[in-house]
Every structure is written in C-alpha cells, then in structure tokens.
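Lab notebook, bench 4. Still working through the backlog of constructs that have no structural model yet. Next entry is a single chain of 210 residues. Request: give me the structure tokens for it.
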Amino acid sequence: MRNRFDTQLEQLQESMTQMGDKCLSSITDTIDALNTGNEKLAAAVISRTRTIRRDEREIENICLKLLMQQQPVASDLRKISASLKAVYDLERIGDVAADIAEIVAVEHVSTAVDILDMKEMANAARSMVYDSIKALNTKDAALAQSVIDTDDIVDTAFNNAKQTLIDKFSKDANVEYALNLLMVAKYFEKIGDHAVNIAQWAMYDATGKL
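Model written out:
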C-alpha cells in the first residue's frame, strides 16, 4: 500500500514540475514577445493556458485521491496540501502571462519597455517563479525566503514604472496606451505575488509552519 502511495506522490511531484516548466515557458515567451513585439510568441502563450489549466485540474485530482484513498503521515500531508494550494498560483501565473501576451498582440508596447525599465521587473518576476518552484520541489526554506525578500524589488520597479507613466504621459492624449503599459507592469507585479505565495507554501512544506 505504501509503495503505491509513494508512486502517486512521485506522480504528483512530476506533474507539479511539468506544470511549473510550462508556466516558466509562458513567462519567458511573454518577456520575449514584450521586448520584440513578436505576435507569434504572444499567441503561443495564450494558447498554452489551456494546457496549464488542464494540468491544474489533473493535479487537484491527484491530491484529492491521495487525501481520500490513503492515510498520509504529517510530512506527506504537508506535501499534498502545499501542492494543492500552490497549483492555484501556478495556474494564475499562466493566466497573467497570457494577459500580458494579449496586450502585446494588440498594442505595440515593446517600444516603451526601455522607458519603464520593465526588463528588470520582468526578469526579477521570472526568477522568483523559478526559485519558488525549485523551493517547493526541494523543500528549500532558505530559497523560499529569498523569493519572498525579492518581492520588494518587483514592487519598487512597479512603483517606479507607475511614476514614470504619470510624469511622461500625463500630457499625452493616448491614455489607453499608457493604461496598457501600466497593466503590463501590474501583471508582472502580480506574477511576483503569486511566486511569493508558492514560496510560502514551500516553507510550510519544509518547516510545517505557515
């Protein structure tokens, strides 16, 4: 019985890793599309959300089966609970990356990326997601804490981008364009927030403390 349970736990770990890789691919492609205006990359990100949502449902089913059909000990229960919670944030990361991609596909915002210094914010958000997934997979509490600490960088970058938009576009008639730029910056901040959530669940899995 325990062997079967361990196999299912391994399946859960593998599924989480695969879903995490897809989310990272979506963020990477979104950043590239944002920097270059590549609409094909943007379309690929949007299309990938269906697969990510399907992964979320499959992982939720695995977690529920483990909880209902088995009797997990405390450490296993933390792993299952953390995965069940973190998978929601992974799905949201995929959705937010698609939200950015949709703006890229409609508006030519790549020309303003350097003005807002959005590359630093985007890359920091991606690194946070990468590290949070790694921390969850390896129960690395120190790495999880570093993700939480890095959130200040993304928040500061968003505030700077917002102020730049206010200063530079306050007299510009193209309000919609400025709002789209602000939304892109806000979406990267959201990605950072979801990475923090995953990191917090990684810490719970590692330490047993919320």
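Notes after review: The mean pLDDT is 90. Residues 112 and 181 are 8 Å apart (CA to CA). Flag for follow-up if needed.
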